[in-house]
């Protein structure tokens, strides 16, 4: 088992390069299946969600060639299956994008129920409703989602809830459907726009991505293209908050400052100095953060995927802050870990009342999910003394080379392999 060991309380200083966006790439890789041609995709982060998605594409028959560490060529001409089994689908939420992509390609998809982070019930009713409105018949048997249509036909799809996943899935299924699809109350996240730009580079006709009405005129064929993934808004935000929480001075490079506005604003409310450049943001902070209230909302609001990281900063603030989670039912599980480090946080349903303390202290802690893991890294970097973080597979799903990146900023951080209890047991028995 691997652990991260951090000796904290060192202000982060220097520059960090932000990688391609996880939540864009996990939609764009399945979208490449829609072309009977080769797509070259650049700025792909080296994270385990990408590894899993590539395995799924290969299982479906696609050729996937690694051009360099961050560039892949997907050759979808040889794709010959519309079935994604549970052994891979269970590892990531975004496996549900294979339903939209395969439906768009073959008018047929059979995909196991998705895995991914757990924050309460994660329904997919809006995805399925969207497919049905486009003319597909959808059933769920034995944990497999079956969707099939004689022909997909454009339709008006109103999203009862703003959903990133359902917006992506309907775009994927509609892009080659006959006629016009209009998605109303669509999600507006940067990765929705990135997917639309990718599909348009392949010859799709999508307008309005980034607003709440997306119009898709179906096209007959999509061709190959070369495309570069946008920088990861949440990775950038994580380093920005880490800079503020450690009283550091960090230039976060390769970002789109417009995507960062809601995070920038909250850091400024907390007293950090945030300077925007064309493609970089510098965060400088000294002294204790100030309290502030945060409410998560769909884009352009404060992202739920930054809520745990921001809560760590507020746990160190002077005064009481209120963090309201309005996207997920249960996204405060990580608070228990922060309490082990001396944080004073009370959770009441979807609200956390954070009474800031002057210092956190190092402790053995656990990454309960991906962004909870990011929050643990920040807490450990800011805390006095030594912390050990377990359950790294969650963090590995979404953060490229984070040990190297934090080390380059001066952190005392390393990844160590320790025998887990099972290993020890096996060794005892062998001995
Ligand atoms: C995406 O999840 C992201 N994942 C999540 O990031 C992120 O937290 C979330 O969007 C919100 O921004 C990926 O992009 C792979 P939703 P998604 O559908 O698409 C309700 C991370 O850490 N809903 O936008 O699954 C749902 O219950 C991950 O990178 C329905 O009611 O989220 C929630 O309350 C974790 N019915 C709200 O909508 C549905 O059919 C938003 O969910 C679908 C969703």
Q: Which labels suit this protein?
A:
431 residues, alpha/beta, UDP-n-acetylglucosamine1-carboxyvinyl-transferase, Chain, 2 domains, 4-stranded mixed beta sheet, 32% helix, globular, disordered C terminus, binds ligand EPZ
What does this structure look like?
The strands form six sheets. This protein has a four-stranded mixed β-sheet. It has a four-stranded mixed β-sheet with strand order 2-15-17-16. Strands 4-5-3-14 form a four-stranded mixed β-sheet, with helices on one face. It has helices at 22-31, 48-59, 86-89, 97-106, 125-133, 164-174, 190-201, 233-245, 261-269, 307-315, 335-340, 370-382, 392-396, 402-408, 421-430, and strands spanning 2-7, 13-17, 38-42, 63-68, 71-75, 83-84, 108-112, 137-141, 144-148, 156-158, 180-184, 205-207, 213-217, 226-228, 249-253, 273-276, 280-284, 294-295, 320-324, 344-348, 351-355, 364-366, 386-390, 412-417. Strand 12 and strand 13 form a beta hairpin. The protein has two domains: 2-19 and 231-421, Alpha-beta prism (UDP-n-acetylglucosamine1-carboxyvinyl-transferase, Chain), CATH 3.65.10; 22-228, Enolpyruvate transferase domain (UDP-n-acetylglucosamine1-carboxyvinyl-transferase, Chain, Alpha-beta prism), CATH 3.65.10.10. The radius of gyration is 22 Å and the shape is globular. By secondary structure, the protein is of the alpha/beta class. The structure holds ligand EPZ. The site of ligand EPZ has 25 residues, from helix 1, helix 5, helix 6 and helix 12.
């Amino acid at each position: 088992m691997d652990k991260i060991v951090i000796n904290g309380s060192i202000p982060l200083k220097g520059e960090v390069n932000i990688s391609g966006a996880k939540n864009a790439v996990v939609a764009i890789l399945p979208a490449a299946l829609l072309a009977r041609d080769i797509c070259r995709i650049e700025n792909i982060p080296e994270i385990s969600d990408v590894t899993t998605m590539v395995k799924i594409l290969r299982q479906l028959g696609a050729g996937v060639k690694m051009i360099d560490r961050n560039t892949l060529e997907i050759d979808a001409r040889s794709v010959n299956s519309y079935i994604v089994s549970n052994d891979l689908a269970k590892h990531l939420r975004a496996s549900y994008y294979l339903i939209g992509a395969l439906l768009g390609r073959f008018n047929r998809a059979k995909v196991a129920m998705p895995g991914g982070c757990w924050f309460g019930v994660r329904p997919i009713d809006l995805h399925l409703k969207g497919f049905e409105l486009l003319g597909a018949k959808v059933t769920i048997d034995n944990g497999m989602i079956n969707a099939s249509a004689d022909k997909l036909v454009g339709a008006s799809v109103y999203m009862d809830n703003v959903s990133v996943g359902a917006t992506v899935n309907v775009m994927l299924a509609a892009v080659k459907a006959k006629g016009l699809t209009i998605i109303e109350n669509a999600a507006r996240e940067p990765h929705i726009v990135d997917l639309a730009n990718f599909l348009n580079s392949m010859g799709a006709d999508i307008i309005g991505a980034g607003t709440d009405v997306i119009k898709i005129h179906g096209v007959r064929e999509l061709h190959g293209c070369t495309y570069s993934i946008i920088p990861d808004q949440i990775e950038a935000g994580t380093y920005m908050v880490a800079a503020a929480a450690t009283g550091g001075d960090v230039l976060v490079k390769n970002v789109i400052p417009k995507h960062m506005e809601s995070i920038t604003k909250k850091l400024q409310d907390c007293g950090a100095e945030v300077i925007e450049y064309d493609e970089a943001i510098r965060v400088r902070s000294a002294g204790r953060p100030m309290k502030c209230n945060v409410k998560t909302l769909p884009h352009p609001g404060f992202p739920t995927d930054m809520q745990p990281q921001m809560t760590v900063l507020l746990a160190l603030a002077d005064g009481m802050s209120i963090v309201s989670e309005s996207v997920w039912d249960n996204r405060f599980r990580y608070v228990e870990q922060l309490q082990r480090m001396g944080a004073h946080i009370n959770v009441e349903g979807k609200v956390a009342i954070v009474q800031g303390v002057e210092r956190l202290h190092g402790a053995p802690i656990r990454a309960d999910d991906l962004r909870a893991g990011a929050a643990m890294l920040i807490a450990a970097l800011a805390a006095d003394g030594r912390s050990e973080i377990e359950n790294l597979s969650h963090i590995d799903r979404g953060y490229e080379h984070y040990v190297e990146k934090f080390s380059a900023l001066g952190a005392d951080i390393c990844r160590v392999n320790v025998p887990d209890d099972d290993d020890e047991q096996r060794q005892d028995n062998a001995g």
